[in-house]
Amino acid sequence: MTDHLIQGTAANNTIRLIATVTTDLVNEACSRHNTSPTASAALGRLLTGALLLGRTFKDLEILMLQIRGDGSLGSATAEASPHGTVRGYVNNPEADLPPNELGKFDVGKLIKGNGSAMLNVTREAGFEIGLRKEPYTGSVPMTSGEIAEDIAYYLNRSEQINSAVALGVFYEYEQAQVTAAGGLLIQAMPDADPNILVMIEDTVSRMPHLTELIRNGADAEQILQEALGIIPFDVMERIPVEFRCRCSYERAVSLITALGEAEIKDMIEKDNGTDLTCGFCNETYSLDEAALRAILTPPIVM
Ligand code: ZN
Is there a single domain that holds both residue 197 and residue 119? Predict the structure, then answer.
């Protein structure tokens, strides 16, 4: 099953629903960055959370989730577009911890250590129509550090939207890879019937774990069915989601160009070229001597 995301509504549009299966894209991100098992869980949850959140705001072009904590992971970043693409990285991909007392990945400790952490949410819009609005950033202290609860806390506090978030990443030690990942976001509008909310809270608390459903072949719609129980819902949209970076060879060239002539001449003389690695996707772009000389002597444009 390829990665996908669905959006739906229930109870006369008073409940908004988003569910996603992100196994392949999380696995790609983790193999690109060579993350440890616990760092894979952290990165996978953050990427999936960014995709969910990226679908909740109108007119949005980029949504960035950033974690800064005292734990050994350092910081972590995920950036999603409303079109279903996401990219991201963690500062210390090799950081790892033994499982916590529940036998689960100790993502909270990896992020917070013995201290604290902040979750920053940045929304940018307006690029495509040439009206670059100031990016909006909101921050909340991370209470659990397990990411899903922290995103829910952000939505409840900063956006005043009553929200429940679940994120899951299953890491198979024998295969040394992520074999299931996904997420669920349920939002109640202010006019939602409190009785319906109680019903949903009840079914969500009793539903199987997300990665268990996904490992058994459930798609995003079946995840919503498990979450809502007998409450009917409508699926409004289904889109593919994927790991995709915005870097390119052309961007690498323009970054090198911006360094200026002296620096580029230095690269030619000392190293006969240069390598540039993208932090978001770990892709390396090599500019050889000829490529660097081409930057110094741009073609004549008439
Ligand atoms: Zn990249």
Answer: yes
Query: What is the rounded average pLDDT of the residues 170-174?
Result: 95
Ligand 1 centroid from CA 275, angstroms: 13
Q: How far is the CA of 28 from the centre of ligand 1 (A)?
A: 13
User: How far apart (Å, rounded) are the C-alpha atoms in residues 80 and 183?
Assistant: 14
- What's the mean pLDDT when you consider all of the chain? 93
Residue 127 confidence class, pLDDT cut points 50, 70, 90: low
Question: How many Å lie between the centroid of ligand 1 and the Cα of residue 259?
Answer: 19
| Ligand 1 centroid, distance to 251 Cα (angstroms) | 10
**In angstroms, what is the span from residue 87 Cα to ligand 1's centroid?**
8
If one counts the domains in the chain, the total is 2
Q: What is the pLDDT of residue 297?
A: 84
Whether the Cβ atoms of residue 47 and residue 3 lie closer than 8 Å to each other: no
Distance 236 CA to ligand 1 centre (A): 31
Q: How far is the CA of 114 from the centre of ligand 1 (A)?
A: 32
Provide the residues around ligand 1 (an ion) whose CB is within 5 A. 245, 247, 278, 280-281, 283
CATH code of the domain in which 280 resides: 3.90.1280.10
Query: How many angstroms separate the alpha carbon of residue 92 from the centre of ligand 1?
Result: 17
Rounded to whole angstroms, how far apart are CA atoms 3 and 100?
Answer: 29
Statement: residue 272 has pLDDT above 60: yes
What CATH number is associated with residue 207?
Answer: 3.55.30.10
Confidence (pTM): 0.93
Residue 1 has what pLDDT?
A: 83
Ligand 1 centroid to Cα of residue 93, in Å, is 16
My answer on whether 279 and 156 are in the same domain is no
If asked whether residues 68 and 214 sit together in one domain, one would say yes
- Same-domain status, 227 and 257: no
For residue 101, what are the contacts with CB-CB under 8 A and spacing of at least 6?
Answer: none
Q: What's the pLDDT band for 139 if we cut at 50, 70, 90?
A: very high
226 and 255, same domain (yes or no): no
Q: How far is CA 259 from CA 12, 199, 266, 270, 294, in A?
A: 56, 59, 11, 16, 14
What is the structure's pLDDT at 241?
98
Q: Based on the fold, state whether residues 45 and 107 are members of the same structural domain.
A: yes
Domain span at residue 281 reads 249-296
What are the CA-CA distances from residue 90 to residues 256, 276, 278 (Å)?
Answer: 24, 18, 13
